[in-house]
């Protein structure tokens, strides 16, 4: 009865960790495409092909529902996968919508026309591919009007996190926040548009200042997932939970254990 969670690397562990707290009785099968990480510097076709292959693998392993716990994959591949059709009884969902619903204070399933919201100036921190896709702005436009979004491409942050160099990651975050502030001096809210970035949330918050509300995806996605599974219990598939990677299992296990501060053991996908 496993639910699949996919990421290009380890960032999706922030979503998995929150999902396990919200849904302690649900087994999750986590798939990290570490051999091809990071996705944020790849072109859209490459991201689509890699994402589709990984999701198909999770479906084949018994997962009826797969969460793309990767903003880059959600931006570059999700809509195309859904438009081209998914197998009967299977679903694939992304991580943008729960975040935007929280930002715009809309309830799940609220399909009313877009309206003005309290927050007018939003900073978006994301990978180069996510920024280039403008997927966040597109989804936001379905729900809100009058919101100014300034996107900052955060090159190098995912690489540093995947390599375990958190000192470099912190320095890069501060640099990217400084660059954003030169374009938008007074953001009201900041969206961490990559599931790796919650690992640096304290650094983002410190650099932005206490008056900026930082939106991070873990708990928001987990809460939406819990609601979704309550309404669609048939999406609890077959098979067992665990951790799979296309990279080197030992190396990926060590990094995952470091991030989550509990023993995580990956197997070869």
TrEMBL record:
Its EC number is 5.1.1.3. It is an enzyme of class 5 (isomerase). The keyword Nucleus does not apply. The active site is at residues 70, 194. Substrate binds at residues 7-8, 39-40, 71-72, 195-196. Keywords: Cell shape, Cell wall biogenesis/degradation, Isomerase, Peptidoglycan synthesis. Pfam families: Asp_Glu_race. Belongs to the aspartate/glutamate racemases family. This is Glutamate racemase. The lineage of its organism: Bacteria, Pseudomonadati, Pseudomonadota, Alphaproteobacteria, Rhodobacterales. The gene is murI.
């Amino acid at each position: 009865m496993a639910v699949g969670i996919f990421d290009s690397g380890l960032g999706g562990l922030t979503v998995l960790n929150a999902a396990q707290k919200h849904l302690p009785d649900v087994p999750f099968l986590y798939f990290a495409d570490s051999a091809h990480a990071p996705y944020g510097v790849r072109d859209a076709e490459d991201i689509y092909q890699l994402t589709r292959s990984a999701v198909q693998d999770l479906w084949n392993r018994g997962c009826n529902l797969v969460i793309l716990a990767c903003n880059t994959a959600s931006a570059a591949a999700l809509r195309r996968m859904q438009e081209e059709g998914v197998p009967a009884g299977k679903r694939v969902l992304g991580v943008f919508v729960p975040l935007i619903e929280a930002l715009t204070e809309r309830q799940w399933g609220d399909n009313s026309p877009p309206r003005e919201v309290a927050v007018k100036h939003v900073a978006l921190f994301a990978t180069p591919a996510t920024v280039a896709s403008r997927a966040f702005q597109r989804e936001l436009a379905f729900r809100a009007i009058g919101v100014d979004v300034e996107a900052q491409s955060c090159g190098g942050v995912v690489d540093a996190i995947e390599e375990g160099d958190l000192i470099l990651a912190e320095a890069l975050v501060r640099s990217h926040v400084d660059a954003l502030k030169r374009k938008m001096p007074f953001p009201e809210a900041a969206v961490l548009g990559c599931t790796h970035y919650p690992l640096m949330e304290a650094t983002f918050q410190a650099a932005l200042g206490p008056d900026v509300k930082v939106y991070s995806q873990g708990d928001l996605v987990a809460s939406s997932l819990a609601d979704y599974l309550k309404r669609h219990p048939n999406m609890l598939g077959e098979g067992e939970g665990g951790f799979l990677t296309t990279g080197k299992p030992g190396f990926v296990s060590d990094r995952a254990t470091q991030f989550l501060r509990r023993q995580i053991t990956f197997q070869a996908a």
